[in-house]
UniProtKB/TrEMBL annotation, chain A:
Residues 1-28 form the signal peptide. This is Tripartite tricarboxylate transporter family receptor. It comes from Planktotalea frisia. Belongs to the UPF0065 (bug) family. Pfam families: TctC (PF03401). Transmembrane segments: none annotated. Keywords: Receptor, Signal.
Automatic annotation (TrEMBL), chain B:
It comes from Planktotalea frisia. It comes from the Bacteria. This is Tripartite tricarboxylate transporter TctA family protein. Residues 20-438 form the DUF112 domain. The lineage of its organism: Bacteria, Pseudomonadati, Pseudomonadota, Alphaproteobacteria, Rhodobacterales. Coiled coil: none annotated. PANTHER family: TRICARBOXYLIC TRANSPORT PROTEIN (PTHR35342:SF5). The chain crosses the membrane at residues 20-53, 73-95, 107-140, 170-187, 199-216, 258-279, 316-339, 359-380, 387-405, 411-427, 471-491. Keywords: Membrane, Transmembrane, Transmembrane helix. InterPro entries: DUF112_TM (IPR002823).
Amino acid sequence: MNTIRKKALALMLAATLSVGAVASVAHAEYPDKPITLLFPWAPGDPFEAVMRTLGERMGKELGQPVVVTSTVGAGGKKATAAAAKADADGYTLLNNWVAPQIAGKLFDPDLPYDNSSFAPIAGVLAIPFTVTVAETHPSNTMPEFIEWAKAEGKTLNFGVCAPQSVPRLVGEQFMRSAELEFNPIPFNGGCMGDNITGLLNGSLDVSVSVVPATRIMEGQVKHLLLLADESHPIAPDLATAADVDINIGWGAAALGWGGLVAPSGTPDDVLAKLRQVSADILQDEAFLKELGPLGKLIAYSSPSDFEALWSETEQLLKPRVEELKTSN
Amino acid sequence: MSDFFQTLASFPSLLSGVQLMFLVIGIGAGVVIGALPGVGPLLGVVMAIPFTFYMDPVSSMALLMGIYQGGSYGGALSATVIGIPGTPMAAATLLDAHPMALRGRASYAVTLATLASCIGGVISGLVLIAVAPALAAFAIKFGPAEAAAFALLGLTTIGALSGGSALKGWMMGLLGLLIAAIGLDPVSGESRFTFGSLYLDSGVALVPLLVGLFSISEILRQIEKPIRVHDTSSNVSASADAFRTLIQRPFNYLRSSALGVFIGILPGIGGVTAAFLSYRAAMVFKKPSDPDFGDGNTDGVIASEAANSAVAGGALIPMLALAIPGDPIVAVLMGGLMVQAIQPGPGMFLNHPEVIDGIFAVFILGAILLLPIGLLFVRLIIRLLRLPQWSIMCVVLMVSVVGTYSVSREILDIWTLIAFGVVGYLLRKADYPLAPIVVGFVLGPIFEKNFRRTGLISQGDFVGFIADRPITLAVLALILVFLLVPLFRYLPSQIDRKSP
């Protein structure tokens, strides 16, 4: 009896100890090695600077470095697919973007991921698209431009960034709503390069663009309109679509948004830690200041708001993608 | 113009010792990086960016531009000595420099390439300083029609690059075009020939294609039939003969550099095209006493190296003046400036004149320093020649694989590398030229997207659209000349043969 009791006691003790040990592995030790943050665009991209700064700050808080790794290819789909496939242990995170995750998936349903592949950590960036013309263009405001276009009576050469992109979908929606005749010209370099050159050399009449890219070219191009219903801190004085009574009604879903996610299935306590740390940093004034002008593009949203934005965006883009698919 | 001389005169005071040190480190590192197959200046610049975060803007640019200049030149070393272009830009240099080395004139070939790189760099630097804003304003007028015409002009060099048989050359050129068609359609965004693979969506990557075709296939060939490359001359230093070409062939240096600068200014065309176009131009001016092109012709090496080095200065012009990067490396350099909170573009000349002057000074000095630093490596490289060939090939194989992987960290690139290695080996065995594949592969997409954009912009009315564009018309006329001249040479010879 005595020995049995002893054995039982020993077993219980061992069990308690081992449970404690397991628990301490899961709790106290995350993270016990460097965390990889997959970045889907090229090294040197302005948003890489944002992710790098964010990663540095998170690394300090977490006690382990957060290494930003650029996995370029297939319009961001490569990094997105890689993250969906990665171990859900909190050591691989993704800077997710609307283009590969939502638009890319709508264009190509066979992609090896969908919204359920990811667990949201935080919404990080919201980049508004703009309607842009060359500085030499006679019109200075959108109403003037619409008047000019109707007087010219020609089909406008309209630069639309990459062929299957969010700015294209948003831009074309706007042009239709404004009842302008246009001829979409895709530029596979995205929104920041060839299409601006196209405006300057007269190949394009008008283009979709983004503020940070063209800010550098001040004096050569001008923005006529922000393709959003509300004004944005990056260009607070710029007229919005709502200002000219063209309601595209897309809200935050019409922006080029990006954020931080982990593969779904990541343990809740790990997610909670990452959510807390990123929320603190993204709402810290010093962090925004450190980013300079890029800081104005930071738009923190909570994990639940960010996740809601995914399906909202999907709903809005879906009919436009279907339309584009059938017209091709 | 007085500004130009003022800028030049102020150079010595512009650079501090530290900045100079970073420039020298950059060039040295660049030469090594460029000489290693697969690892080009682009990767070098990207790898160096994190180090520049804590530097002053001019030091940062000194390091990055040193890597750019050294790397653009370094590819010529491996092209000459082991017949493997370290960078795509050196593929045209290889055609003549490697045959020279095989005949025991490695010193001459390498010195020639170094000298041509230096001259090309200096000339493009002078152009950069003198006319940056004015030329940038001109280049901006180049639309898709002009870009498509220039790419087409580049494609006509294929026939000239094919060594023996023009037919084989065109077959390889078309193969390059076909490979380039893999990936996303530039206008509709649909996947083409990708078999549903996300990897192929981005198209076949240039680095594994190039390294596989030239490097892996060369290794395979040498397993089968080892060749010994050795310099018979006891003098392992710079070749004085090479310096004499400066007096004998000044026109080639000038023409090739000018062409390189010009191509560099045009967005999205780049060093590979410049090297091949310049090579093609040199063929037009061939001296009767020289060996054939592709068989150790001095002008071929000068033309390719001067042009590809001159591209660097040209490509910086639209980046600094308009914030439009002329090539991918310059795009990363632009990122390097933005990290320093300096916005390239017209405002930069007003807001950061000291950085602009610093960049000018660094560029010219870098081009000049390339000569001594490059020649230092000549000794090293020639010493390398004395090693048994098998040991060099082992190192080349290792570096090719590691270098290719490090560019993208994509394991499938290694399979692409091996596949193109086998393809390259088989093509070499059947005596098909490899350079036209590279030309087709690089220029195909430039031509396609600009041609299709021209179609979209003109709404299908190509003829009416081009009629208003004199530059496009001039380039198209030049293409016609390039295509017809060989025909006119060929036909009379055929008639002569038949008449008796």
